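Internal ticket - ligand job 446, flavin-adenine dinucleotide:
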Amino acid sequence: TQKVVIVGGVGGGATVAAQIRRNDKDSEVIIFDKGNHISFSNCGMPYYIGGTVEERDNLLIPTDKFMEKYDVDVRVNSEVIAIDRNQKLIQYSTASGIKEETYDKLILSPGASANAPNIEGINEKRTFTLHTIPDMDQIHSFIKEKKPKTAAIVGAGFIGMEMVENLHALGLDCTVIDRSKQVTKIIEKDMASIVEDHLKEKNVKLILDDGLASFSNDGRELLLTSGKTVQADMTILAIGIKPNTKLAIDASLKLGETGAIHVNEFMQTTDPDIYALGDAVETMDQITKTTRHVALAWPAHRQAFIIASHLDGEIIAYSGTLGSAILKIFDLTVGATGHTSTSLKRLGYTFKEATLSTYSYARYYPGSDKLWLKVLFDEKSGAIYGAHVVGFAGADKRLAVLATAIKAKLTVADLPELELAYAPPYSSSKDPINILGYKASAALER
Ligand code: FAD
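stdout (structure tokens):
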């Protein structure tokens, strides 16, 4: 038995505690979280704001239930402020002062923080980020009490796009602002334009290639770098995150090239008694074997399993991250796995691409809708480097098949051979994945 201390009790931290208890009923496990809640569903927060998830409690697991179920000591409102690696203890700060706790093994899952620059003229009461339950509650009560009519969403990534949909559902007139030339950079510009058209169809105003410079009029007017102005009763800043690395830096643990915590394939930091996982770490990219910082729930959960196994003497290596991601933008599904041409070019890869604009299933069957697919691949070996999907019904299925194909090291020449089940409500006798494979195979060097 050993004493395991976990810093952070949500995506990675709560999962690793639960995983430890799979086989190990005896070790002492203590979770510290600086917030008031553990094991909450961050991913559900936009949908509570928009009303799709009606009950706030459905996003939360009561701490006492978690403690009882997993026999874990959970200390909320307790921020770990320092690690003493020589004495193997941590210091944590609570309302009743600074305390200490020793450990045999320490696990860091402190996540990331939303970027929130102190922009000139900002009014904190009407400008929000969304990363924690208190952030969600603030947005929710602002909408309820102040009844805003207009919203600006700065940043057209995951959280920005999910917030547009949910604020729009509440009847707010939304403007999205992003400094890049396209929305959703997990896919490429040609496919992002489909998303942009869809946003416009929903009467969302879109300002691209332009950034927020400052606020005026008590935070109600956004001044953009181009000189344009946008009026908004509330603003969501969804302009990225940065990994929480202060504890690791102060303890002289190595950071990686991306600025996140460096770990080996067993998720150990440069101190073998200290593991780290989730949004705070960088891991290896499964395809290019270069380092990559991916802040998503799947890696955190898989890494939790790897750590719990390692503590239990079972040596399983984390095989790296693909960055498979999916999101809903109004009626559209947008997803990607692996790389975009931007990241491949940055890494010096040469590659080809095949694209397909088709239908999700038999056109004559009611509800059949448009589907766009793209695959990036090596022109000699046919190895798949990345795949992108945009569509309606069945888009998520095609993304899952392509992510599985990459993991299984299938090439584009294998895609026509995938015998994917067909009946008119689901597919066509040649599935769109098969057709994409035929197109890509035809472009292979002979
Ligand atoms: P977190 O889950 O953020 O947990 C970190 C915890 O550590 C926090 O509770 C924090 O309070 C605590 N902490 C930090 N420092 C300290 C300290 N010094 N002492 C004590 N406690 C500390 N991912 C997806 O794959 N799909 C999605 O649809 C999706 N949607 C999302 C929507 C939103 C709005 C957000 C914010 C995230 C979303 N994510 C999504 C990302 C996903 O939630 C994260 O990748 C995952 O939660 C990472 O787990 P983590 O343990 O690294 O960090």
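Auto-summary: Residues 7-13, 32-35, 42-43, 45-46, 79-80, 109-111, 130-131, 159, 244, 247, 278-280, 295-298, 300 surround flavin-adenine dinucleotide (CB under 6 Å). The mean pLDDT is 97.
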